[in-house]
Fold DNA polymerase eta.
Amino acid sequence: MPVARPEPQEPRVIAHVDMDCFYVQVEQRRNPALRGQPTAVVQYNDWKGGGLIAVSYEARGFGVKRSMRGDEAKRVCPGINLVQVPVARGKADLNLYRSSGSEVVAILASKGKCERASIDEVYLDLTEAAKEMLLQAPPDSLEEICMEAAKSNILGLSSDASEKEKNVRAWLCRSDADYQDKLLACGAIIVAQLRIRVLEETQFTCSAGIAHNKMLAKLVSGMHKPAQQTVVPLSSIQDFLSSLPVKKMKQLGGKLGSSLQYDLGVETIGDLLSFSEEKLQEQYGANTGTWLWKIARGISGEEVEDRLLPKSHGCGKTFPGPRALKNNTSVRILALPFSSFSSKIISYSLAAEAEYLRGRTRLSCMPIYLGMKQLENTQLSTFRTVKGWLDQLCEELSERIQSDLNQNKRIAQTLTLHARASKKNERDSMKKFPSKSCPLRYGTGKIQEDAMKLFESGLHDFLESQSTGWSITSLSVTASKIFDIPSGTSSILRYIKGPNSSAPPAISDSSSVPEDPSLDVTPIHEEQCEPSTSEKEDNNRYSAISTKQCPANEEKKNSMKSTGVKGASSILKFLSRDHSAHQEKRRSDGLICSHQGPGSSSEANEAERNVPAQAAVVDRSNSGAEPSGSSNTWMLNVEDIDPAVVEELPPEIQREIQGWIRPSKHPTAKRRGSTISSYFPPARS
DNA sequence: ACGGCTCAGACG
DNA sequence: TCGTCTGAG
């Protein structure tokens, strides 16, 4: 539900910039032959020509619409070019569009506060820039208003055909306008210039709205498309809103808007004016009521956030209808001679059969025994299918958070799994599959492992001790709670490496050791992708400690003393717990609730939930040297830090490491002694 | 059995 | 806090 924000007293200049059929433009830039042609971007071409997700304006002229199928589009526009979105790991891959969007954001962020609102939209707060212009070079002093600005659409300005551009110039230069509209005029000129820069530097066109708040800017940015901008002068607001259908207002496109129509008889925003704030609050609660009252008057206090990057990364795929992940996709029928389901027909998956034929599955797993055995078997098989997809999704997610780490120095702290599932022939089939989350550990393999555990946990809750006939219709994994890594983190590195890297490592007994070029660091891809999927060129080159390859503790200490410690990788490796111990710990402390059979008690489970386990150590020492702003980053989970090793470090270093640790808020999470058990605190006070 | 895949934010 | 729900594009 929307909520009202206190509005700033000072007038603001806000712009909303919206790329024109963005995915199409990205494809047109990649293949210029598509320019000027009716074109649409589709995903999943196999079923009815795929679904359209972007349509060029030429194609729109033929009546092609978003959310037509490809076949349908061909019907109304036989000449249309259908471009498929890239596919990777069996799913749509939007990275091309994401990175193209970033190009645009980088330009638009140059003139003021910039908020990335979606892959192809931003809000700008141009207040300061507009004030500046009004002081330094007001529109009426400019001998020539830039062409693009003169092509603006001014809401409420009489748009007589040939005179329009002249009128617009006049409006932009009006010396008798009130202050706020003068600011808007400056904003319009700035936005026009920005849009030209975007076109020049990216070849993309965009449209924009310029107004005093986000709501109005957003409302008009799409009013004149493509490649145009629209300004909302103060005097035009009431007329504009009064005739605006409620459903057009952002946040009112869904149930709330419908409720306004059907429960209050409100058809336009203007109709809202006849309701008192109290009445609206009574109907929709204090927050939403006030919000409604205000938006009816063009008031919106929402600030433009200073944020160029997304707050979360998610990867998902749906498995609609017959493609649902289930144990009986291809039906084999087997009548059981004796079982509790003796009269029933049980199906099992082709995958399980194939496994059996390959000799990978033991006979006892095949459905020749009792009903229960058989159920286990079919579930195992479904798990395998789910795991396969989950692994794919996690692989993509891992890649995305790693490049976020390298390029933006941000760490995600929470991993969430969501699924949709349905039960066959169950009365309670309305029940939803619960989402589950846990602390996020970096590394493809770890993410895959944790995601699968989360899935099992969710499935357990979903099934509630029944276990037949379930299927999965969607899967997604999300990384969220993303924080900037604080700068000045690794004094430990400087300390250990010495003031400059030529100095001997202070921590080592042997005083002079040649600098080791981090050979012992294992790239995480190699570490964790056993079936070696097509390894792409690592332009996101990050490295992580491989716990697998850590020697045992004693050995580690010795190697530390004898060879010295060189570089972040060695240090992190040194700090980390050895792999088998780590595994034991995980099993006993249970970062994620492990699957519990029906009837097993849940109190232990309760105590082990939500144990923070994420930490990071980042070597930013060379980040200044990297021109791209991307530098190698080493990660270490705090749970992998060996407290015994830490104890041997100098006190100030110990203190620093302790500083990474935040006490668990969960008193039930019992720890032994000084076990490091918490996670790296986010960057801020 | 079809709009798929993302994102953000509010609420309890 | 986590999980659910709404809404947007």
Residues 1-2, 18, 53, 66, 117-121, 250-256, 414, 416, 418, 432, 434-437, 610, 665 of chain A lie near DNA strand C (CB under 10 Å from a C1'). Chain A has four domains: 20-94, 98-295, 314-484, 491-532+539-659. The domain at 314-484 of chain A is CATH 3.30.1490.100 (Dna Ligase; domain 1). Chain A has a mean pLDDT of 72.
